[in-house]
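hey can u check if this looks right to u? its 692 residues, i copy pasted from the old doc so theres a chance i mangled smth
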Amino acid sequence: MNTKIAACFLLLITALPFFGKETECMVILNNGSEYRGKLADINGERFVFDLPDGQKEFDKSEIYMLSFAKERMYRDIRDISQIDDNEIAEAVKKASVYKPEQNESQLILLDKINYRYDGVNIIRTQKKIIKILSEAGKENSIQMVYYNTKSGENCDLIYAITITPDGNVFSLQDDAINNEPTVQDGLYQGKRRIKFSMPNPEIGNIFVYEWKKEFPADSLFSPINEYFYLRDDYTIAKQELSFVDMPYPLEIHREKGEVKGAKAQIIKDKNNITVKAQNIKRVTISEPYLPEDSVLLPNIRISSCFDESSAVKFFQPQIPDSLSFNKFINEHNFGNLKTQDDLKKVYAYFQDKIIQIQYQPSTQAYKISNTDKMLHEKKLSPLDKTALFADVLLNSGIESSFVFYSPQKTAATKLHKEKNLALYPKTALLITLDGNEIMLSFENKWLGFGKLPDKSSAASAMIIGKNAVEYRLLPDVPPENNKIAIRMTGTLDEDGTLHLNRNFTVDGYASGSYRKLRFMSDEEKNRFFREIVSLVKIGSVSKEWSIDSNLEDKNSPVNFSDSLLIPDYCVVSGDIYLFSLPHFEYDLGDLTSNHRDYTVNWQKKGIDECHYEIKLPESLRIKYMPASQDFSFDNEKFHIIYQCDDNTVLNVSYTSESNTPFVKLSDYKKMQAYIKRRMELSKQYIILEKIK
């Protein structure tokens, strides 16, 4: 049982006489189950509760947390006149005269964030006031606040109220608050959240709530990284971000973005910073696809300075002096690593045998981990796994460096200048063995063992070595390093059945999805190939698939082949057959709206080559075939040749080269025309007809 939970029980036991048997509380178990009721008794290690469905006992080891009902601000307030808060009064006044724009769902009347240092912890508070403008705006009635479970963070909801247009106030009650111990999988694994439902979520009502979070004042492991956006997809009447008496320096970074935004007022005095802005207009983004690594909106980012000396001191491998570590080394014969082959075997064991929790690496997770706990629980974050592997290597005298990197493209140069651990979400290990620099990553199984990190395009890396921190801006990947070559041969039957043999040669990033097959069971491999087959036509059957490649050598291409039997492949109408080319779909419809306000990140760099050789039945001849074409946009090139030899063999070859993943707004219309030609071509049929 960890110290936090133990402290919770100690507080409970010492405070029991004050609570008494009528104390209302929420019981949260380790498995996530929740009960609300009254604490009746504590009998040794057993806790007794009066619940709506009767009395129930829980062993102390089953309980994750006890949350007692508490008094909150404005709990007994019934009218707006009773609230003495100028910001709330000002917001209500603005809301009454605000005229919403078309399709506007909500108005942010106030978004105010404050950081202050109390001598031990940093306390972050956020106050939000939101008016509901439509049915869609009612979604704001459910609010969630996330915080870490492993970095000494505490979080609390101060109050939450709803104000109606006629001034009535409805306060959130404790039974509408859910303080959840965990969120299931993904990004928020290892975090907790406070989830609450605002009362009276009706159009025209105003939500007001405030919450606070406390965390250790540690610039390395609890870094401050706060964005102040000057455009968003909703209107913000007033926004403020402030820092008071910070214990370490803060840096201000300004990004103009690609659309004009409100002007911000910045006031700086030593370690006190205040940023203010009013009337931040919304920008309509009509497309669901957003490039996550390009700056879309003007913003100001406030971040704590990265402490290089502390990072170098902390991120150093060590040989743990523990029985469990020595046992682990001896049981698996990890005590004598000399060659790359030895290293590959140990690396493969770590990938296969030690469980990895799939969430973003966090320095907090690594900071509180210890080797014994790692080996006992075998539930590690990628950073934990990296750290344990570094310890194993050091046991054999192999030194290594921690690597934090960001695979972002356009932001790489900016990241290279802004030294901040929070901006480098991926983790790896860098060693030199036999004169070769090798990167070992536990982020993904197929990224793994190779060069630093060769799947990233223009990535920025932070390497924490024995004596210093080194920054590298990794070179951009030329398109020929990401190449897919496909050769398709086959025959078409008179009934429209297609017999197709496919051969793929895949280089670079795209090969990762095939290399991961070496970690899959036969059942998973079959499922993988079924998914590929469904791209051609649902109901297709893949036979005789094989991979003739060294999947562990990331510098060699992956060669894959299979055979398909595809019934009813052609669309047949009387004597007319409509034949489409397999694997020739091209549809980026969600990128082709008439207007957008940000840069396009529309496809990966790379070269796709494909050649078709389809033998036609003697009873059919070609009635129509698209013309060969050659067109381009900037560094994008597309070339396709249609041929038919004596009406017996259909030959089609195309090459598509992409070297411009990011397109400027001024070139958007040109890109639209290029995409439109590609899309129209991919939708065209080759028309066959029966010979009479």
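Confidence is low (pLDDT under 50) at residues 1-22, 183-188, 287-295, 589-601.
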